[in-house]
Amino acid sequence: YEALNDMTNYQRTYSIGQVEVDAGVVYHTTEYRERRNHYTLFACTTEPAGFDTDRDAFLGPHNGLHEPRAAQRGAATNSVAHGWNPIGSHHLELSLAPRETASFAFVLAYIEQDPDAPKFAPDGSLNKTKGQALLQRYADPRAVDAAFDSLRDRWNELLSAFQIDCPSAPM
User: Fold this and answer.
1) What tens digit of pLDDT does each residue of 114-150 get?
2) pLDDT tens digits, residue range 61-79?
3) For residue 33, what is the DSSP state?
4) What is the mean pLDDT of residues 22-36?
5) DSSP states of 73-102
6) What's residue 13's pLDDT?
7) Could you tell me which of 86, 50, 85 has the C-alpha nearest to residue 71?
8) Fewer Cβ within 10 Å of end Cβ, the chain: N or C?
9) Mean pLDDT, residues 152-162 taken together
10) 89 and 109 in contact (C-beta within 8 Å)?
């Protein structure tokens, strides 16, 4: 949630990183129990064959982002991070016939809980109601495409009000 702090304060990140995984959806909940009223989620509009939330399990020992072990192995380990560096990774398996296509979208979302809503479900897990409603809204890749179209149109509308007349060609 705070990129600079997450990249430099390793002791904090390694000590408190926390996720929940439910039906293939990765919920990042670091500090949620202690002081935050928001979480993030990472999902896919098609069911993943596996996932990883532990960076070390995904990359493997001594591997970098350019050579993750999960990709080399061709499978995820279904790791659930408790501390260290939580990530979100989905493993998809697709079989396509010649000229066949498949459409899917990854959904990364920031969810701010309503102040009056309970933070937790009766079993002690994260109250995922708001996140699940968002995922339902974007369950079809066409809904994701429509949202991007709407966002593009909005930015075009906002920015079309600005014009510049400058004698400098590079400008």
Assistant:
1) 888 899 999 999 999 999 999 999 999 999 999 999 9
2) 889 889 999 999 999 999 9
3) T
4) 85
5) HTS---B--BSS-EEEEEE------TT---
6) 67
7) 50
8) C
9) 94
10) no
Contact call for residues 15 and 80 (beta carbons, < 8 A): no
End-to-end Cα distance, the chain: 35
Q: What is the C-alpha separation between 22 and 147, in angstroms, rounded?
A: 25
**Angstrom distances, CA of residue 153 to CA of 104, 143, 156, 159:** 22, 15, 5, 10
CA gap 128, 108 in Å, rounded: 14
Question: What is the spatial distance between Cα 77 and Cα 88, in angstroms, rounded to a whole number?
Answer: 12
SS3 (DSSP) at 142:
helix
Spatial separation of the C-alpha atoms in residues 41 and 19, rounded to whole Å:
9
- CA dihedral for 154, 158, 159, 161, sign (positive or negative): positive
